[in-house]
Amino acid sequence: MLQTEPFAEVGGLAVDPHHRGDGVGRGPLETADQWANTNGLIVIRLRSSIVRSNAHRFYERRSYSVEKTFHTFVKQVNESGSGAVV
């Protein structure tokens, strides 16, 4: 049983800080729209760190909306990374 309908996902979009606001990110998102449409998908998802408020406004201006917010938890158990609890 499927939990969600098939969707496209933008795996990552990074723009050099010196070029943010120059329209550089529009092209890749337009390409994603076209690709999803051509392949019969009606939803595109992407992830953006909660601290990237400028990026969020960029996505919202392109009709993306926040679906959910989550935290990623990490625990370092020792310095060597072998997994043994210190």
Give the helix tally. Answer: 2
CATH topology: Aminopeptidase
What's the mean pLDDT score?
A: 90
Unreliable spans: none
Largest sheet, spatial ordering of strands: 1-2
Largest sheet: 2 strands, parallel
Shape: extended
Sheet-strand content, in percent, reads 5-15%
Helix-strand string: EHEH
The CATH level-2 architecture is identified as 3-Layer(aba) Sandwich
Distance between the termini: 42 Å
Q: Into which percent range does the helicity of residues fall?
A: 25-40%
Please state the structural category: alpha+beta
User: What is the C-level CATH assignment?
Assistant: Alpha Beta
Number of discrete domains: 1
Count of individual beta strands: 2
Calculate Rg over CA atoms. Answer: 17 Å
Fourth-tier CATH superfamily name: Gcn5-related N-acetyltransferase (GNAT)
Could you characterize the architecture of this molecule?
The protein is of the alpha+beta class and 86 residues long. The chain has two helices and two strands; from the N terminus they run βαβα. It has a two-stranded parallel ribbon. Strand 1, helix 1 (26-38) and strand 2 form a beta-alpha-beta unit. The longest helix is centred in the middle third of the chain and has 13 residues, at 26-38. The chain is extended and about 45 Å long. The termini are far apart. The relative contact order is 0.14.
Give the SSE layout.
Layout: E1 8-10, H1 26-38, E2 44-46, H2 53-61
Parallel strand pairs: 1-2
Structure characteristics:
86 residues, single chain, alpha+beta, Aminopeptidase
Question: In a few lines, what is going on in this structure?
Answer:
The chain has 86 residues and is α+β, with helices and mostly antiparallel strands.
